[in-house]
Design brief:
Number of strands: 13
Radius of gyration: 32 Å
Oligomer: single chain
Structural class: mainly alpha
CATH superfamily of the largest domain: HUPs
């Protein structure tokens, strides 16, 4: 590309960052890095009524946790700041005035009651979409219907007003979307949107276009929900004389519920037991009380696994490869391979990705998760043992918390035993083998997984017993469970004395005469 690629992720601090927003940020990031460009994080906080304290910090922490770091942002100033719209307030009035002066926007002095009355009239006339547009504006109180003198008087008197875009009555508005191809909307379907509110703050539409132009944004990659607004933005670029530098648009497909019916929401996640936000948070709900929610981070998803999963929600590389490092995603990413239709949010696939990433992580890295749980439960830390436990278990866990929940037996002698295994496998024959195995283990010089197996096989040969008849009973005595990681690895990690003590406890606790 001839000029530097500049993209932006522009969330509003109105609450938690939805996982769909994270995907949008990721696609912007991948596109920028693929083309050696820049990604900008811009906080769109013009709607002061919906502003939620702490939401901006939440957005920042979420993106940092998942590894998406913007090149320019409120926290990494560049040449085109400030990066919060509320701090750019002085910039927008100039462009609103230009639109008014050139006949492309107008002052509207209508009260809320007058607007309601207009909508009721249209509903009574059976108009499908009652709106302030090229037809209805001529019956309203604005600078198109009032005299120049009346407008001046109202402005000087400080009468509340908004600035509205004057949408042409009969015009086809076109844009060539990078994902969807040519999109055409007739101007009769576009209403005269408010560009500047009575408090002097711009609405999303004006601020968004002005900021994208001033920040030299070359590509706008955003969610499908903004597609209906795109023709309006095209008109603004045209009226402001910026058609030649208008960014290319790419509207991403919706994230759908797992069943494919409708857009993914927090309620869907709550109902199905998975989060839709990146990290844990708490923000005021509709009734003002704090609403707490859990996130992918707290549920134990690894950031790189979640990134990999998100990349595939709407995009595919055109190959069979599914596991990608961030650099591989950057190298493979193209907008052309983003689909048009909505994509199902398959939480089982997210779990699969997490499992794959855990499998290949070094035990030294994984051990940090287990150490936290051991400390929380007051268990002394042996770092070498912890690493061995993680190595033994990492093929079997989906979330890091499972190193503790499923591997407690490495650190605590069993206080209960799988009743199903007791009923089926705790036989006189098994106890006889275990008694001999206990004695042999205590005598062994070095208990490795190989010597543990060799000792057991020798005892089985002497007694003429097949391994399948007693293996579960041996596991039961040592772990209390009927399944788990390789038993011989467990024995090596526990060591001679601990294994012998556990076998003795099981024999004492589960006498054969109590078993059918």
């Amino acid at each position: 590309m001839d000029k530097e690629v500049r993209v932006r992720f522009a969330p509003s601090p109105t609450g938690a960052l939805h996982i769909g927003g994270v995907r949008t940020a990721l696609y912007n990031y991948l596109f920028a890095k693929k083309h050696n460009g820049k990604m900008i994080l811009r906080i769109e906080d013009t709607d002061q009524n919906r502003f939620v304290p702490g939401a901006e910090e939440y957005i920042k922490e979420s993106l940092e946790w998942i590894g998406i770091i913007a090149d320019e942002s409120p926290y990494a100033e560049g040449a085109y700041g400030p990066y919060r719209q509320s701090e750019r307030k002085h910039m927008y009035a100039e462009y609103a005035q230009k639109l008014i002066d050139e006949g492309n926007a107008y002052y509207a002095f209508d009260t809320a009651e007058e607007l309601d009355a207009m909508r009721e009239r249209l509903k009574a006339a059976r108009v499908d979409t009652p709106q302030y547009n090229a037809i209805t504006r001529m019956q309203m109180k604005n600078s198109l219907t009032l005299s120049e003198e009346e407008v001046k008087e109202k402005l000087q008197a400080g009468e509340p007003y908004v600035v509205r875009l004057k949408v042409p009555r009969k015009e086809d508005v076109r844009l060539n979307d990078m994902v969807r191809g040519w999109v055409m909307v007739h101007s009769s379907a576009i209403d005269d949107k408010v560009l500047m509110k009575s408090d002097g703050m711009p609405t999303y539409h004006l601020a968004n276009v002005v900021d994208d132009h001033l920040m030299k944004i070359t590509h706008v990659i955003r969610g499908e929900e903004w597609l209906p607004s795109a023709p309006l933005h095209v008109l603004l670029y045209k009226f402001l004389g910026w058609e030649d530098t208008m960014p290319q648009f790419a509207h991403l497909p919706l994230l759908l519920k797992p069943d494919g019916n409708g857009k993914l929401s927090k309620r869907d996640g709550d109902k199905l037991g998975f989060p839709v936000f990146p990290i844990h948070g708490a923000f005021p709900g509709k009734d003002g009380a704090a609403e707490t929610f859990h996130g992918f981070r707290e549920d134990g998803y690894l950031p790189d696994a979640l990134l990999n999963f998100l990349a595939f929600l709407g995009w595919n590389p055109g190959t069979e490869q599914e596991i990608f490092s961030l650099q591989e995603l950057i190298d493979a990413f193209t907008v052309e391979r983003i689909g048009k239709s909505g994509t199902k949010f398959d939480i089982d696939k997210a779990k699969w990705y997490n499992q794959q990433y855990i499998k290949v992580k070094p035990a030294t890295e994984l051990s940090t998760f287990l150490i936290k749980d051991l400390e929380a439960n007051g268990i002394a830390i042996d770092s070498k043992k912890v690493e061995k436990v993680c190595e033994a278990m990492k093929e079997r866990v989906i979330f890091p918390a499972e190193f503790w929940t499923e591997g407690k037996f490495f650190f605590m002698m069993p206080d209960s035993y799988d009743e199903n295994v007791v009923r089926k496998k705790w036989t006189e024959e098994a106890v006889s083998v275990l008694e001999a195995y206990r004695e042999a283990v205590l005598k062994a010089d070095k208990l490795t997984s190989e010597t543990s197996k060799e000792i057991l096989n020798n005892i089985l040969d002497e007694k003429g017993v097949k391994i399948g008849q007693v293996m579960q009973a041996v596991r039961l005595a040592i772990t209390g469970k009927g399944g788990g990681p390789d038993l011989m690895e467990i024995i090596e990690i526990l060591g001679n004395a601990e294994v012998a003590d556990r076998i003795q406890k099981a024999i004492d606790t589960l006498p054969v005469k109590q078993v059918n």
